[in-house]
Write a structure and sequence with these properties.
Blueprint lengths: L9 E7 L2 E7 L10 H5 L7 E5 L16 E4 L8 E2 L3 E2 L12 E5 L2 E5 L23 E3 L5 E3 L1
Parallel strand pairs: 2-3, 3-4, 4-8
Antiparallel strand pairs: 1-2, 5-6, 7-8, 9-10
Length: 146
């Protein structure tokens, strides 16, 4: 399947020496059967945990462990935005955190506007976005990102 692993209520941990980085992936919140507890099974207790979940507003639901960073899409940034007002066309579970870096109940999250569209094949005042995130180990063994 294209050389990648689908993380559907699952995880993968990358290790380098004594350091590890865990990516957690959830099933679709709206149409699937997401299970964060299942994704967390047998993960290292410490270290950086990056949650990959399509719908960004999941960040306001409770989590049994701290999440270092949630990465989401789904909202397309609102697609149609009015200057100074923000998005006027949002999707379910993509309304609160439509784009950019925000703080949810479980920690920080980044919602990319992506390069596509949904519902209507247009964008207005909402440029497409291809996001690159660099993770860096900090002095206290947690990770920071830019």
């Amino acid at each position: 399947m294209g050389g990648f692993k689908v993380l559907k209520n699952n995880h993968v941990t990358l290790r380098r020496g004594e350091d590890h980085l865990t990516f957690l992936g959830l099933d679709d919140i709206l149409y699937g059967q997401p299970n964060l507890l299942k994704a967390l099974e047998n993960t290292p207790k410490d270290g950086c945990k990056i949650l990959l979940v399509h719908e960004p507003d999941f960040a306001n639901l409770p989590s049994p462990v701290p999440i270092s960073l949630q990465l989401s899409g789904h909202s397309h940034g609102g697609q149609v935005r009015i200057p100074f007002l923000g998005p006027i066309l949002t999707t379910k579970m993509g309304r609160k955190f439509a784009e950019g870096l925000n703080n949810g109940k479980n920690g920080p999250l980044y919602t990319t506007r992506g390069i596509g569209t949904t519902q209507l094949p247009i964008r207005f005042c909402c440029r497409p976005e291809l996001t690159f995130i660099t993770l860096k180990k900090s002095a206290n063994s947690l990770y920071s990102y830019t």
